[in-house]
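thought: fold this chain, then report.
action: predict
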Amino acid sequence: MASVGILELRDDEFIKDIVSKLSDLETDFISLREVSIPPNLDYSVVVDRMSYNHPFLLEAVKSLSLGGAYVINNPFSFTATNKIVDTRICSALGIPHPRTMVLPLINDEWDVGDSVREPNLGHVGKEIGFPCVLKPHNGFAWENVYFVNSMNELRNLYDSLKSKHVLLVQEKIEHKDYYRVFCVGKGEVLFVKYNPRPGCGGEYIWSDLKPIEGLVDKLSKWTIKLNSSLDLDFNALEWSIDIDGNPFLIDAFNDLPEVQKKAMPPEYYEWIVERFSQMVRERAESEERNKTIFSF
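observation:
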């Protein structure tokens, strides 16, 4: 019988609903001490919603993946991508995104000579314009994200952050509509109207999609194409529609989407639970493996 390993808190409501849908499969909440190389664990699928938070767990799931377990999501995608990589991939795939520039980390701890120099912020401000967004290239949950309205603000914020972060300066899209689009199994998408707010304070709103009915097919194809490129089985993208009706991908990589029953309309929650559990079942019954750069 196919076995499914779960890396998540046992009382997590979403994962409990997933496990209940997989009652015919052997499921096990993973608890690790030391891990042999190769691991002496035999899982067909590992549902990983915790390794992002602990380096030992991340190395463990990478080892499990190399041993043949199908990890959701691919741990090698997680370690290889960030907001810079996302933007480059979007450019290569023809997916519209805000104008973006990268600002260097400046810290005397790294002796790199003149390979890294102070940026010309005047040029950055001219290219991106104001208002703009300043944020770390690998940040999440709105940590150290700032809306910048002037050159003085940009200079002051950069000076305060440059010793700790590689930073992005990004065009601020004034949105008319905003959607979080869940993608499951690199093939099915769910549009949920969304009010983005700092931290985990975003609000899901029921929507019939009439405001973007002419864009749904295009956004769906772009969303599936991106997730296939990143090898992500479960992701939530954030699409901003500006006042002229033009779409921009704001957040391309959210491989651990929060799925809270009380936070979204019931039909959306049930859609995600049903599709996610079906995807786990399909991966458990197949010979498919996570993509890596390695060849065995």
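thought: worth noting. The two ends are 26 Å apart (CA to CA).
final: tokens above.
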